[in-house]
Amino acid sequence: MNSNGLEGVVVADTALSDVDGERGRLVIRGHDVEELALHHDFESACALLWSGDLPDAAAHADMQAALGRARGRAFARLPLLGDARVTDLAVNVILPWLWVRAAEGKNEKIRRLIEQRYFAWPAAEDNSVLKLARQRLLGTSNARILKSAAAQQGLMQIVRDFCEHSNAVCADCRFPELVQGWQVPRAV
User: Fold this and answer.
1) Distance between CA atoms of 164 and 162, rounded to whole angstroms?
2) What is the average pLDDT across 44-69?
3) For 116-146, how does the pLDDT look when each residue is reduced to its tens digit (9 = 90+)?
4) In terms of Cα–Cα distance, which of 181, 182, 164 is closest to 173?
5) How far is CA 139 from the centre of its chain?
6) Beta bridge partners of 122
7) In this structure, which of 41, 47, 131, 149 has its CB flanked by the most CB atoms within 10 Å?
8) Whose CA is closest to 132, among 168, 91, 83?
9) pTM above 0.70, yes or no
10) Looking at beta carbons, which pairs linking 174-182 to residues 24 or more positions away fall under 8 Å?
11) What HEC string does 98-130 produce?
């Protein structure tokens, strides 16, 4: 028996999107997803998905108002998530996604603003990974040494890149060797 996998198998019919794997295209309601992302805002994309057409000025304003009301209801529920979860979502999902969108759209002003927000975001709750990393890598158990979520993220990335590939006594870890090779630029 000769099988071509799922080639030619229709899983569902939809007017919302079309995937052309051979050409590497994703089309949303007749519009290339790249063009939508670069030339239309979130409200316009929502209107396109829900109504089938990009909105005129009045429909765009209506969509913006409806989404604003929905955001208000959603933000009213944020306390249910807790500050730690909001921080996780902001620094791991929302701000990086916005940064990529600004970079792809070549909007340097927005990209810099997002970077400022990212680096200024307050530290999240402490966890066991951070506690162990601070003790081993920074020689302190003081959680206040990491003042921002970005600093916490950086320390956790070091753990993922180095500590998870070494043993409990850090034998054969390349991180100390890399740090010793760093040179701090001198002011001229």
Assistant:
1) 6
2) 91
3) 999 999 988 888 888 888 888 888 888 888 8
4) 164
5) 30
6) 148
7) 47
8) 168
9) no
10) 175/137
11) HHHHHHHCCCHHHHHHHHHHHHHCECCCCCHHH
Tokens coding 81:
């998530």
Q: What is the mean pLDDT of residues 95-113?
A: 88
Summarize the chain as % helix, strand, coil (round to 5): 60, 5, 35
Rounded Cα distance, 64 and 47, in Å: 10
At 57, list the tokens: 């000025």
* pLDDT (0 to 100) of residue 188: 62
Q: Residue 168: CA atoms inside 13 Å, Cβ hemisphere, count?
A: 0
Contact 162, 173 (CB under 8 A): yes
User: Cβ-count burial of 114 within 10 angstroms (0-12 exposed, 13-18 middle, 19+ buried)?
Assistant: buried
For strands 17-20 and 25-28, give the pairing: antiparallel
